[in-house]
């Protein structure tokens, strides 16, 4: 049986996709699999800066997915990666016994970086640090 973790950000464009990628890359316990989604559905817009930074680390942006409450109810762990999503939106899942974490990773436009590329790299590295610590409980 596979246990699932869902990483969530606002639009499933950057933070949650990076989290999904890194968890699935670094986690060695095949009983755990990560997916990602966004609170708000949206159209796919290729982010060339994100893909430029991602290429350096082997990450490629995917088509964003919106949250599905039926999917969430089947998760073992929900991780809100974004700082701009209130954890209270997911209180019903906590009451059902699903572990809900909130990492509060800032989006690129909230960072004091010189440019978008530097901000994207900071996001990637911030998430990588969290994921490296997080996967220890599964491996």
Description of the structure:
The chain has 139 residues and is of the alpha/beta class. It has a single domain, classed as 3-Layer(aba) Sandwich (Rossmann fold), CATH 3.40.50. 36% of the residues lie in helices and 19% in strands. The protein is built from five helices and four strands. It has a four-stranded parallel β-sheet. Strand 3 (77-82), helix 4 and strand 4 form a beta-alpha-beta unit. Helix 1 crosses helix 5 (116-134) and helix 2 packs across helix 5 (116-134). The model has no long low-confidence stretch (mean pLDDT 92).
Total number of helices: 5
Under CATH at level 1, the class stands as Alpha Beta
* CATH level 4 superfamily: Response regulator
State the end-to-end distance. Answer: 16 Å
Overall 3D shape:
globular
CATH-defined fold name:
Rossmann fold
Helix proportion of residues, in percent? 25-40%
Sequence-ordered SSE layout with sheet pairings:
Elements: E1 3-9, H1 15-26, E2 32-38, H2 48-57, H3 69-72, E3 77-82, H4 91-95, E4 99-105, H5 116-134
Parallel strand pairs: 1-2, 1-3, 3-4
Give the key terms.
single chain, 139 residues, alpha/beta, Rossmann fold, 4-stranded parallel sheet, 5 helices, 4 strands, 19% strand
What is the compact description of this entry?
The protein is α/β, with parallel strands linked by helices and 139 residues long. It is built from five helices and four strands.
């Amino acid at each position: 049986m596979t246990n699932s973790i869902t990483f969530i950000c606002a639009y499933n464009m950057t933070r949650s996709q990076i989290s999904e990628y890194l968890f699935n890359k670094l986690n060695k316990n095949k009983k755990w699999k990560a997916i990602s989604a966004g609170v708000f559905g949206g159209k796919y817009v290729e982010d060339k800066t994100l893909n430029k930074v991602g290429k350096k680390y082997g990450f490629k942006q995917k088509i964003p997915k919106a949250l599905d409450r039926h999917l969430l109810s089947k998760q073992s762990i929900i991780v809100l990666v974004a700082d701009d999503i209130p954890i209270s939106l997911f209180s019903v899942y906590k009451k059902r016994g699903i572990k809900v974490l909130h990492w509060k990773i800032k989006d690129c436009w909230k960072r004091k970086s010189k440019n978008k590329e530097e901000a994207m790299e900071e996001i990637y590295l911030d998430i990588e640090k969290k994921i490296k610590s997080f996967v220890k409980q599964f491996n």
